[in-house]
Amino acid sequence: MKSLSPYLTLRRARLVTGCILFFYVTTHLLNHMAGLHSLGAMEQGRVWFVAFWSFPLSRFALYFSLLVHFLLALWAIYDKRRLRTIPRAELLQLLLGLAIIPLLTQHVIGTRIAESLYEVEDSYTYVLLTLYHFGPDKGLWQSVALLVAWTHGCLGLYFWLRLRPWFQAARPWLFGAALLIPVFALIGFLDGGREASRLAADPAWLRRALAAINLPSRDELATLQLLEERIYWLFGGLLALTLAAREMRSIVERHRGLVRITYPGDREVETIPGPTLLEVSQLNGIPHASVCGGRGRCSTCRVRVTLGFDDLPPPSASEQAVLGRVGAAPNVRLACQIRPTHDITIVPLLPSNASARDARPRPAHLQGREKDIAILFADLRGFTQLSEKKLPYDVVFMLNRYFAAMGQAVEEAGGHLDKFIGDGVMALFGADERSDTALACRQALAAARGMSAALEILNKTLAHDLEKPLRIGIGIHVGPAIVGEMGYAGAVGLTAIGDAVNTASRLESLTKEFNCELVISEDIVRHSGVDVSRWPVMETEIRGRRETLKVSAVTRAHDLPSVYNKATQTA
Length: 571
Known about the structure:
Strand content: 15-25%
Radius of gyration: 34 Å
Helix content: 40-55%
């Protein structure tokens, strides 16, 4: 029952029917807002409202959505092995949704059904006289019901839309609409009720209004009340059957034996077959990411199954779509969608505090892969001794000016500023999917030229604050590295690891030995095509490498010939 068809999943059915019902509630509230003008405006708006929702297709969509959405709510209760694993916001949404039926039953029977069975005029005059003039307590009950329905729908839209990249920008506007629409609707309903009550003070007007309404007789009212009671009994019976079915299922599953789930750190959990892997984590207090609350939308609960993958049921079409969207590996599954029946070993792929940002599709180079890239390391010379003679404020000021100048040079050359390490800089070139090795090398050299030129300008600017000019050492190398987003929590970013990175760092330190500003490897020279014949070529040993490496020691990086055109990104 997880899928009605490859294209119509229960999740999609819940979304579509929910949107139809929310649209109905929205148009109903907008009609209430006409009461800010007059009772006549409410009646005129009702003509359009009824015309739209009385259209056969609209009426069928509304009633069908109401039935399906209610049944899906019961299914959600049945499907969850432990209700306490439901996030609080989603539990609130579920409870509000269930409350809608008992809250609105009396109103629906007194209006729509009374109109259909006994030709009662379902007008705003009838409703306002009934709910505001004759029974203010019922008017308050009706207002609560509308707020419950509206809040339930807003929560559903929030859970759906919060994963969209544009949601954060639109969030203040959506929140404003969610707050103002019901407020203005209730004020309009109140103003309409006051006007109806004021008109009802005229006995002649009240007699004409009641005659036009065609109120149901006492016997007809008894029939409507009996129907109301039966709906309450049906609602309560279906809810009780759902809870009983949950208990029966638990009894059956307990007799199937236990399944062992192994987490990182050799932590093992034994559970009965049936719950999803995400529920198992939540029930046992194991932190597990799930931005969408286990609805199979966000992919943040995804895990790598290292043992027992072949024993898992195949993914549904919707799960495959989500995994495909994030470019997941073949042995990756969504923890909220798999129900282990055999022992498995898993590794969660995202931290438990993953956000909606982690649910969005990411380029391949962010997910981790090996690629030939150019790596640049730069470091200030003698800044430690200089900073000892400066006030902390002055040190921070100078470092920020230096970082800004170096960062701008890297970005203008098309590189990615990886990180600042103390007074050093690490930058990557060619880390994205479109760059080739030659272009990456030319970009790195252009960045070195730009950094050297920027440092000269900075030295002139800070001349009165410096005993001697700032000096920099830059090392550049190209080679294979593992590139991807790495880190934890807020400290996650694109970076690279590997022998090529270590070599670039070593070349930067060699600028001290060679008394120069830039050291570049032979591979950089070969790929970029730069002419460095005017500078000496040396062979040096690199820690961790068996073979020596030929490098060129460039006295001043700004003297390098230009090999990169930013406008065309070519040589």
